[in-house]
Amino acid sequence: MDYREYVDNLIKNIPLGIAISDGEGYVKNVNHKLLDMFGYKLEELIERPVSILFKEPEKVNRLLAEKKKIIEEEVFIKAKSNKIRFTLSAYPIDAYSRDIIYIFADIKKERRMANRLSENKAIYTFDKIITQNESFIRLIQFAKEVADSKSTILITGESGTGKEILAQSIHNHSNRRNGPFVAINSGAIPESLIESELFGYEEGAFTGAKKEGQPGKFELAHKGTIFLDEIGEMPYDMQTRLLRVIEEGSVSRIGGLEQKLVDVRIIAASNKNLKEEVEKGNFRKDLFYRLNVLPIEIPPLRERKDDIPLLVDYFMEKLSLRLNKKEILVSKEKIDELVNYNWPGNVRELENYIELSINLGYMPGLGEERISFKPKEIGEYRHEHLTLEYMEKIHILKVLKIFSGNITKSAKALGIGRNTLYRKMDKYGINCSDIEQWSMLERLE
Ligand SMILES: Nc1ncnc2c1ncn2[C@@H]1O[C@H](COP(=O)(O)OP(=O)(O)OP(=O)(O)O)[C@@H](O)[C@H]1O
Ligand SMILES: [Mg+2]
What we know:
Blueprint: H1 3-13, E1 17-21, E2 27-30, H2 32-38, H3 42-45, H4 57-65, E3 70-76, E4 85-92, E5 100-106, H5 134-145, E6 153-156, H6 163-173, E7 181-185, H7 191-199, E8 200-201, E9 214-215, H8 217-220, E10 224-229, H9 236-248, E11 250-251, E12 260-261, E13 264-270, H10 274-279, H11 285-291, E14 294-297, H12 307-323, H13 332-340, H14 346-360, H15 375-385, H16 388-402, H17 407-414, H18 418-427, H19 435-444
Parallel strand pairs: 6-13, 6-14, 7-10, 10-13
Antiparallel strand pairs: 1-2, 1-5, 3-4, 4-5, 8-9, 11-12
Helix pairs in contact: 12-14, 16-17, 17-18
């Protein structure tokens, strides 16, 4: 192997995308890895301006014009393959020639956007709540107006409608924005721990307690906001204690004698209808009225369908950047389908659906069978789908579909008699002219 061959081989096998251009930015050569990375053919790039590779060519052109080196800059590529985000280093090959070498590498670490709640901090602000719906805009207006008030806010709405991001936005809009935002979810922690979580405990309050004791969420939220999520899940005796805290404005730790004054703004949220819970005797009436001073009810997504196309665009852009994958084109028909769907998991379901689509590279059929929007609900939902009966029903539907609803042919294919097929169809409520059932099948396929 001569030296040149050796170098060629080296460049070919190096796990980086490499391009070389002349001083004007016209591509002279690229390695295989680059073609693989971006999904281009050699002849599509040779002697073309290197800028055709970039989504924002101005940035690269400017750096080249200024003869600056580029060191590990994040760039977006007009790739034909699925990835679009890479790091680029580019600089003159040596002091004598004007040729420039471009080295593309995969982004090292997935930079998860800080969507998660960090320690006692609210990250969401009103400008990140996407809507064009008139009544939702009015709701946000109201929330902004009451942000500074110390009165309690009760946010209700179905799962995934945005209760938590609204609570965070209110805090960040208020004069408490530099104080803590402390969230506690009564539904997510064991009942036996709720009291110590909320109120803290003193040294030696119970076996297993930390030596030095521990402050509760109310104390931690001093001069800030406490977010009582899923308040409907709070045990009845805890509701009594909570009511006392609200009325007295002070807390005492478990095992402690001292009453500490706390300056805390309360925002509570529930996806249950608390009024109904009061009527059923599950929720204290007096606490309900204490919390419900400033009620905010977020409408489900199906009642603000005009937001659906907007949210699709928003999540498509946001998630494709986060996942480092290409956006998917959404046809007019698909938009109609998305608008007509009823989104039981609301915005969270839509967000997850777009994420799934970006990962798949296409938009799959709609429906709960495919989309997970909340682990808890998946558990409940899947249960009936695990039964043999359910599989039998789906299989019968499939076969009927194959034979366009012809009973004789379908029964023969299934290896059963016509009467048996009729009986089973009756049992499962299958009706050949029922389009809804066919579209359910499409979702499963
Ligand atoms: N209007 C909106 N604009 C942008 N993103 C939204 C909007 N509404 C909801 N989301 C997104 O949906 C997700 C769910 O919102 P959030 O957690 O606030 O819902 P929730 O009402 O608290 O649901 P749950 O009752 O299940 O806790 C969030 O991660 C957020 O990204
Ligand atoms: Mg929530």
